[in-house]
Give the backbone structure.
Amino acid sequence: MSNKIKQEISKIELPKELNERSKMGVSQAKKEIKNNKKTFIGIAAALLVSIVTFTLFNNHLNNTANNSNIPVDTGDGGVHIPAIQLPEDNMSADMIGLIVYNENIYTQTRTEIDAQAAKDIIGEKLGTTKAIIDEWSEQEAYNKEFASTIGKADVYTVKGYDKDFRIMTYTEQDGKIFVDLYENLNGITINIGQDIFGKLNIYGNISSAQYRTFSDWNNSIDDYQPITDMETLNVFVEELNQTKPLPRIQNSDPISNSRNDEQFRELSINLNDGTTVKLTLLKDGYIYYGFMGAYFKMNEDIFSKLWSILK
Amino acid sequence: MINLVRKAQKGNDKAFLTLFQKYEQDIYRMAFIYVKNQNDALDVVQETAYRSFKTIKNLKKPRYFKTWLIRIAVNCSLDLLRKQRKAVQLKPELEENLSGDINEDADLEVTVRDLMEILNEEEKSVVILRFYEELTFKEVSETLDIPLGTAKTILYRALDKLRNNWKGDGFYE
């Protein structure tokens, strides 16, 4: 491809110290890697001693400790979603927007609000985020209050919502207002749909709703179709509280085979307070909300009534 | 190249430097678009070299070295901007519905200054990756961790801004 943008960028002159600066970066890293190796050997030796000691004294310890990020079935119909942990391979970490507050990790959510509506439900200021988490952060960075991946922004409570569940950022820059909602959807146990959907205050507060197909969602085309049958929608929303949570496990997650127009709809529900809750619905009765390690299964009859109007 | 990556993953700094220097000019020019001056762009290059050598052992698929490195360079540039000013927004504005005959025509008249001054950070990222690095939309979306549709929307918005600027309506000036 030959294009003017490439030609223009290629005109940026290169300073003669460029090569030198690359070398400096590499040698700085090399030094630290060497030092870390020395420390690692020290720690490994100490750890080995501890492990041997621990094993000797805990012969009967049942080794089922689960340190991973994988959501698990609690055995009584619930799902436990572990607190966000950095994967060993940091580079594969999805850098979604997140904020650490009150020892919980709040992630960017699928509920949106416009700047004007935000002014009406903004609550008390909790603090200001610090931009200290990136792909290379150690786990301890996640333990610092107001650590975040979103740069610097003021954090507030949201009127009408539990601050242990939802907080918001509100920033004015260059005359524009930026608002985002963040929710604590990890480090939690969900026993029934109400544990999540109840907190979203959907039932009884709907002003309107619309949906779009997979292709439109995937291509960011705002071709929304309005929902006029509010009765069916209300029955569906009430039933959300009774849905059964299921852990999202890579091989059995139904969404992986449903990314098509036949099986996938995005449902947007506008609430009276100006928030818009976005749910992903799959034809077989599954519902997804936000970046979380669980999805929900609904009673087939009620689900299929709503699905039939999302054509 | 894959052999060099493997050597670098074992800690061979010479192999890594050989690889890195293939891309250092690209990284410098990309950084320059974000940070707008030589000193900061050189800092970004050094920081990218530092972070990438430190973490190359975690790169699982050596064939993705280039996009992996570019991703680090973009993050280093944004981090530097974050340190210098209040915040870099991840989602600067709600996505507008773009309609009409917007095409992916890169042959519009544009200067480096236009790219630096008219586009916001996410638009710069998509334009640089798509046109300067010549990545596919799929690679752009994977490098920046955004949905494919969003990458397209951002690119079209950016091109639209550049085009409107060239037409001289002054809206973005």
